[in-house]
């Protein structure tokens, strides 16, 4: 019998085994139904609206878009911003990761914390800090330099804010790559006479190149799909995500807003899968399973000093941005009256308490659902063979590549009419959280399952346990760290969401990030600072509690999001 025939026979046997377990079949069908309803259907609704005119198929909306300078400029601006930010953030992330894992610098734990701290921030907190520091009444521009300028609005401010906000993504991606390079390889090259620069250029950099490209692509997508920062400090620098929002909500031109969302959606999805292909096509690690005594990274004192100065410089910027938010919470009127006050806290308590309570409540509901669903999908994809297994994996991960603006518009179009009238409800917000962040839990679960031998679960099945019982009593306890890491990171993302849920909030169910944005737009910067500060404290407290209760490490929590 040929190997192909054996493989087909094995797949048939696996499928027959799945059919004998009704719980597994029902779970597979339910997951497919939910993925189709809450991921495919909303995106279909966006495409359909953008290609419909007078009840028939038409490309008139796209023709109109490409004939207007304003929208063409938004496309080119988005690409320009994404390219610049991806390049700078990848450089910063690479140098940071190299300094910590290859450079031998001191205070590694402190710098690791600083490198991932921006991840837990509201998406536009740094933009708020930049306004307070470099705006017309900014501490640095107006108070220290005596300048009356708004030059921070537009491309310069966006590049600064997004670079600091997104370099942790590159750092987390590249940390694993650089840790996978055996220092003995570099040491051997230097023992053969190569200089440190030659070793870096011919060994370290080529081995890290796939990770660098993958990090660049991820940051590029994140920059193009960013909504919070451009709407706050974009000024006249139009980008696609903001234009789609303004057309859909401000102008009421739904087809044009949908078309702009599609123009944002297509390149980001393509780039996302290109990144996955690059990371998955081969292994560039130099560590094997063979027993060996690994050396330590060998770097010169001058290089360590230079890397330390670089890391300190980035750390100072991060701390300055965070410190500005804290100080802004206690200043009576930024740029005018610097006296101490608690009135911003009082106002925030009156205006934002119910919104904050609702935000936490909905995030706490969505988090366990996200973790359970993601873990179940990971288990099915990794441990069961059934028709459509790869399709399930693809659909589950697809929402991570879809811009939040497209998700929000799609949900409004799909779930604001019969038979799904859910717009403005808590249900649609929780659903958006779950399916927006389920890829985090799926990736975390797959990574954990790869480290567990399937024979353990097979032994349970051979002893008569069903797949559901095996999953509950064997698999889930073994991957508990990954489960809680995915859940924690999902909670962080739910608490700091903006681009998708800004379309879905209502007077009854608002979100604290939308409230912060509203306060910034009416120049209540002190109130916005207080709300951002409180939001950060809550997120840090939840992360600390989860790490304490589950024994998770900091890197486990944040690497789950990559």
Per the principal axes of the C-alpha atoms, what is the gross shape?
globular
Question: What is the tally of helical segments?
Answer: 24
SSE order: HHEEHHHHHHHHHHHHEEHHHEEHHHHHHH
Judged by helices, strands and strand pairing, the structural class is: mainly alpha
Q: What's the average pLDDT? A: 85
Percentage of helical residues? over 70%
Report low-confidence residues grouped into runs of 5 or more.
Answer: 283-293
Describe this structure in words.
The longest helix has about 40 residues, at about 345-385. The chain is built from 24 helices and 6 strands. Residues about 285-295 have low confidence and may be disordered. The protein has helices spanning about 5-20, 20-50, 60-65, 70-100, 110-115, 125-135, 140-145, 155-180, 185-190, 195-225, 230-235, 240-250, 255-280, 300-330, 345-385, 390-400, 405-415, 425-450, 455-460, 465-480, 480-495, 510-520, 525-550, 555-560; strands at about 50-55, 55, 330-335, 335-340, 415, 420. Strands 1-2 form a two-stranded antiparallel ribbon. Strands 3-4 form a two-stranded antiparallel sheet. It is globular. It has about 550 residues and is mostly helical.
